[in-house]
Amino acid sequence: MERRMEIVRMIRRTEVVPLKRTMLVAAVAMFAVGCSTAQAPEPVAVTPVAQLVGPQGYQGPVGPAGPQGPVGAVGAPGYVMAGPAGAEGPAGPMGPQGPAGAMGATGAVMVGARGPSGDVGPAGMQGAAGDTGVQGSSMVGPAGPMGPAGPAGAQGLAGQTGVQGATLVGPAGPEGRSGAAGTQGVNGETGAQGYAMAGRAGAAGPSGDVGAQGPNGPVGAQGPVGAVGLWTPYREITFDSNEADIEPSGKSTISEIAAYMAHNPSLELGVDGSINSASTDPTNQDLSNRRVSAVRDALMQAGVPAYKIQTGAFGDPQLRRNRRVDVLLKTGI
Predict the structure, then answer these.
(1) With 80 as the cut, is the pLDDT of residue 263 above it?
(2) How many angstroms from the chain centroid is the CA of residue 189?
(3) Could you read off the pLDDT of 20-75 as tens digits, one per residue?
(4) What distance in Å separates the CA atoms of residue 83 and residue 67, rounded to the nearest whole number?
(5) Where are the alpha helices (DSSP H) in 39-92?
(6) CB-based burial of residue 254 (10 Å sphere; 0-12 exposed, 13-18 middle, 19+ buried)?
(7) 279 is a domain residue
(8) Does 321 fall in a domain?
(9) Whole-angstrom Cα distance, residue 244 to residue 286?
(10) In this predicted structure, what is the pLDDT of residue 174?
């Protein structure tokens, strides 16, 4: 036991030299093993000694490379499998608003089509036929000037000439030898006169080009203006039931009457809206008077002088003027 303690003290004194300390640790270990097998002494608490590691030895040279091993066989081709489609990404932000386009040109205003004509009202009762008046004198107005003749139409194309038929002419034969001249014979008697026959007329040739249009002749002198001695119906203005306003069709008729009066200043107009003399309803007469006034005012606005317009009963008194006003004309005095 004392010897063991001495060995420990020796080890502590040799901690300065690493190599000697290592060897001493190995000797102590061997001695401890021998003592334990011989006497099996009681365990003694030994203070742990730090393990010493020697310096790394010199690294030897690298040995030669071994031979290259054989190349392994190529593996079987793998299966190509398409993976599932990825999730759709979020929509990108909306781009900035583009500039507004230029405003288009203003559309043209077009007049719509004329509306359908209204239904014809029921025919009124036939009034009693009046006595035939005395035949008035009639005067035929002068004929208007004849308009210029239109240009002549273009000449039609000539038909095509037919195909020429085949003509076969045989070959000329050989000319014979001239014979000997015979003796002069006796003159024969003159034969009877034969009948002359006219041949067929040939096909007509194509027409020649049309000549230029000649100048128009001078216009004749204007004849005297005819006279209309009696009131003659000219136009009529129709109104809606219980209305005294002129419809658009009536305004067109008013313009037509004014244009005719402007070309015929010798005429006068008579506006007749009288109702049947058998009617005693004052309301009907008032409506008729308002319609006559509306026609007279419209004629004056269209340019007809007021002194050329008369109002009253100028037509047949037996006629019922239901919803209309008659316009008559005659030559002024």
Answers:
(1) yes
(2) 97
(3) 555 554 554 555 545 444 444 455 454 544 456 667 776 788 888 888 888 888 88
(4) 43
(5) none
(6) buried
(7) yes
(8) yes
(9) 10
(10) 60
| Closest CA relative to residue 292, chosen from 308, 276, 277, 312 | 312
Q: How many domains does the chain have?
A: 2
What is the Cβ-side half-sphere exposure of residue 270, based on CA atoms within 13 angstroms? 18
Q: Is 129 a residue whose pLDDT tops 80?
A: no
Question: Residue 221: is its pLDDT beyond 80?
Answer: no
CATH number for the domain harbouring residue 326? 3.30.1330.60
Token pair listed for 245: 């306003």
* DSSP H helical ranges for the chain: 2-13, 18-38, 248-263, 282-301
- Per-residue confidence (pLDDT) for residue 258, from 0 to 100: 96
Alpha-carbon span 235 to 267, nearest angstrom: 14
For 246, the domain range is 232-331
| Angle (deg, nearest 10), helices 2-13 and 18-38 | 170
- The answer for residues whose C-beta is within 8 angstroms of residue 300's C-beta and 6 or more apart is 306, 309
First to last CA, the chain: 185
Q: Which residues contact 45 (CB under 8 A, 6 or more apart)?
A: none
Task: Report yes or no: 246 and 294 within 8 Å, Cβ to Cβ.
Answer: yes
